[in-house]
Design a protein that fits this description.
Elements lengths: L1 E4 L6 E4 L2 E4 L2 E4 L4 H6 L8 E7 L5 E7 L7 E7 L1 E8 L10 E7 L5 E4 L3 E7 L4 E7 L8 E3 L21 H4 L18
Antiparallel strand pairs: 1-2, 2-10, 3-4, 5-12, 6-11, 6-13, 7-10, 7-12, 8-9, 8-11
Length: 188
């Protein structure tokens, strides 16, 4: 596995080693040893999967506030997405900065998103299977979202069709109206 910088501290593209031949391929998508060797010390406790039927579906920007904040290791098993991570830690040198990475079944890349970041994606193809690991269990009470089009953040999603957004995402508050409680700590 290889860790690639993204421009946002703590957010990394993970490129697995793929072994393939005429029959297909094999790759490790998670290895505690490999991640620790890359300086990424996570203990994942839950796997999640979503399916998006159409190109152009936007999901996000989502996070769980403290004390149930989650780090995520995300990847695409079928199709392709533009995956976005946003630094929501007040006081961070990269506060409100975001990065977008194409993740696809073809490129097999993964994105490691630490706690304190919002996450969202837009499907680039039909029939997208999205898989991710998290290091904290789901908490309905701490589940949050902020508007995908919050002007304070300014993510360039391209064309967004409202009918492809969930009511939850359409009605999410702006960050300035949310109770997001992430704070940057110097040692991060």
């Amino acid at each position: 596995m290889k860790k690639v910088e993204t421009g946002l501290p703590g957010v990394y593209i993970i490129e697995p080693q793929v072994f393939g031949d005429q029959r297909g391929y094999f790759m490790e998508t998670w290895s505690t040893r490999n991640f620790q060797e890359m300086g990424l010390n996570y203990e994942f406790v839950q796997d999640n999967q979503s399916f998006s039927a159409q190109k152009g579906i936007l999901r996000g920007i989502h996070f769980q506030k403290n004390p149930y904040a989650q780090a995520k290791l995300v990847r695409v098993n079928r199709g392709a997405v533009m995956d976005v991570a946003v630094d929501l830690r007040k006081g961070s040198p990269s506060y409100l900065k975001w990065v977008a990475v194409e993740l696809s079944a073809e490129n097999k890349r993964m994105l490691m998103i630490p706690r304190g970041f919002g996450h969202g994606f837009k499907t680039l193809t039909d029939d997208v299977e999205f898989i991710y690991k998290v290091d904290n269990l789901y908490s309905k009470e701490c589940d949050r979202g902020i508007r995908f089009d919050d002007p304070a953040i300014g993510v360039d999603w391209g064309e967004v069709r409202e009918e492809l957004l969930s009511p939850k995402d359409m009605n999410a508050p702006l960050l300035s109206e949310s109770d997001c409680n992430f704070v940057y700590e110097e040692n991060e």
